[in-house]
Amino acid sequence: MGRLTDRFGASNETYDYDALGNLLTSHDATLSYPGLGAARPHGATHLSSDDGEDSVIDYDDVGNVESMGSLRIAYNQLNP
Q1: What is the pTM of this model?
Q2: Each residue's pLDDT tens digit, 48-65
Q3: Residue ranges per domain, the chain?
């Protein structure tokens, strides 16, 4: 599966994925996912940063991210 695994430049970053192709880690964060039997097994549920911040990720009924920690996301009428 074609996935970004490394980025080189001003700062180098490495990305890790699980067997399903879900992004697990980037340079400063770790993502957590629900189990395989969940409604959205590819939808991350938590983001933990290296600075100790843990954010819950919430979705609406059609799979759009509604919130991530204190960040709230609104969609316009063009997004179902």
Answers
A1: 0.70
A2: 988 888 999 999 888 889
A3: 6-72
